[in-house]
Design brief:
Blueprint: H1 2-24, H2 31-55, H3 61-68, H4 72-84, H5 89-108
Helix pairs in contact: 1-2, 2-3, 2-5, 4-5
């Protein structure tokens, strides 16, 4: 039962990642839409990273630190987006990278 719920959660996260990635990189559209999907992508990356870091046993200190370091690309992306006043392509790629890093770590660090 628990593995089924975990699988459903992973599928929902994957689907959300694909949708936010598509809408974040639409060439035309309002800047507001790009900001919303950029924020959703960053929140999804933070969610995946928190799930990854908190699911590890407390004696896996190195893996926990590596998991939390997955937030660094999102932080850099947010800084770039705030400095430019809107999400740019590099900031969007960094937001996506955070989710990818979190998902890869979730699958391979455990």
């Amino acid at each position: 039962m628990a593995l089924g719920a975990l699988f459903i959660l992973e599928v929902v996260i994957l689907f959300s990642f694909i949708i936010t990635s598509i809408f974040m990189f639409l060439p035309k559209g309002e800047n507001k839409i790009h900001k919303i999907f950029f924020a959703l992508a960053v929140m999804l990356g933070v969610l995946v990273t928190v799930m990854n870091a908190t699911s590890l046993p407390s004696n896996f200190t190195a893996q926990i630190i590596i998991a939390w370091m997955g937030l660094i690309p999102a932080a850099i992306g947010i800084i770039i987006a705030v400095a430019k006043g809107k999400p740019t392509v590099p900031s969007k790629i960094l937001a996506m990278l955070t989710t990818i890093i979190g998902a890869v770590e979730y699958l391979f660090l455990m």
